[in-house]
Amino acid sequence: MGLSDLFRRDAQRRQALAQAQVVPQAVRCVQCGICSYNCPLGIDVRAHAHSGRPVADRHCITCGECVARCPRGVLRFEACSVLTLDAVDGGR
Amino acid sequence: MTRRYLIIGTGAAGMAAAERLRLTDPRAEITLVGEEPHPFYSRPGLAYLLLGHIPEGQLFPRPKDHFRKLRIRRLHARATWIDAAAHLVGLHDGTRLPYDVLLLATGARAARPQVPGMDLEGVVTLDTLADCRCILRLARRARRAVVVGGGITALELAEGLAARGVETHYLLRRDRYWGRVLDPVESRLVEGRLEHGGVRIHRRTQILEVYGRKGRVHAVETNHGRLIKCQMVAAAIGIRPRLELAITGGLAVDRGILVDEFMRTSAQEVFAAGDVAQVYDPQSGEHKLDSLWWVALEQGRAAADNMLGLARPYHKGVPFNVTRIGGLTTTIIGAVGQSEEDQDLVTITRGDSETWRDRPDAFAVEASAACSRLRLLVGRRHIVGALIMGDQTLSRPLQDLIGCKVDIAPIRERLLHESVDLCALILEYWERWKEPRVAAQP
Prior knowledge:
The complex is a heterodimer of chains A (92) and B (442).
Chain A: H1 3-19, E1 21-24, H2 34-38, H3 45-51, H4 65-69, E2 75-78
Antiparallel strand pairs in A: 1-2
Chain B: E1 4-8, H1 12-24, E2 29-34, H2 46-51, H3 66-70, E3 72-76, E4 79-83, E5 88-91, E6 96-98, E7 101-104, E8 108-110, E9 123-124, H4 129-141, E10 144-149, H5 151-163, E11 167-171, H6 184-196, E12 200-202, E13 207-213, E14 216-222, E15 227-229, E16 232-236, E17 239-241, H7 244-248, E18 257-259, E19 270-272, E20 277-281, E21 286-288, H8 293-307, E22 320-325, E23 328-334, E24 363-369, E25 372-378, E26 383-389, H9 395-403, H10 412-415, H11 422-440
Parallel strand pairs in B: 1-2, 1-7, 2-3, 7-19, 9-16, 10-11, 10-16, 11-12, 18-20
Antiparallel strand pairs in B: 4-5, 5-6, 8-17, 13-14, 14-15, 20-21, 22-23, 23-26, 24-25, 25-26
Helix pairs in contact in B: 1-8, 9-11
């Protein structure tokens, strides 16, 4: 994979993040961990869900696995501003 | 002076209280006493462990060194008595623990049906991780199981056993499932899904006796005189708050430990929270039980604040839960009660609220699709309850509209009109209500 591919992938990922991010509603979460278990990137989504913080993790590819698997409707995609990308925190 | 906080119970309420105490008072001496040997785990997650959706290791949300980092002393022990006057708690091994402030978060345990044979090996309930491990171990060998009870836990057991390849028979005492909360259409929807998943439902059927061989479950006899051979009997007829400890201390109890808005029991410097607490509700003037995860967390935090002397009343929001029943995601909010008696449950069940049983002074309006169902309880000025099954588009909008008691006067007549598109109307009204609030956010 060339350097340009890497940049393209990063740009795509940032574009996806800019359009939407995974936002939890903590009051629904029972900390069962299904979200973290199904995250292909190993992000501790549960920690975000419990605290109510958006999954603003630089590794999140917004694939939607956690959103789809959560049995309690804790997670959803929400549009976010490009400006908030500066606040991407790593979140692990 | 360092204050000594003692918490009995290591579930959601006890854990939330311990964390809040440490956050607010870095110098406090905090001791957490619990009977279970495991670290803090997600009790609602046991259902997903049974279904095989997650491995056991996934149930533990906190790191292993959590208590050490928070400087919380964790004792694996059973508290057996309280001397509230002397500010002492006794443990099973004779240890006496002095305290300045005590929190009882002892939770609840499953009630057992009063029929002969319930002490046989193979009769199970789903309270703890140890119970879940036992069920999984038994299910590996069992060919057939009988499930009795109602509410969410009975379905967790039935679906979990069926998912493990056990032929599962679910016995309902009356004609339908969870008649106090679901209406007949909703019950049928769930039952249809269960049957489609391989669970065999027996209506108007109850166990008269469980028979054993060599101490193990061998069969059950039903009220129709039928013998169902089985290796497991799973019971979920409700839970009862664990009151024994509170009673030794002379605390006022009813169905649970009676507490006021500040989570205070009848004894000085003794608080209670979670499934064991029967909390005063200023709106209804009654003390009510809830067995919801989030409510337990909130009560634990509220108790901690008041143990610290912050005098913050606990404000119970509109109780709601989102769960899967019969594989259908279901949101229950506020008062949705039905007039039908529920003979499958003798008490509240897990993931339940006594408030849901309230029969509001409201009109029920409903909409159904193939695998979806919406039922609204429309009061004079507000929507007071809702049940959303299947399609969850309206789950959050209704949570806002009911929780914030939004005035529905502008749409009430249309809501009650038969030909209205309920979903579109609610969604549009919620978006209009939400818009200025979103714009006002920083």
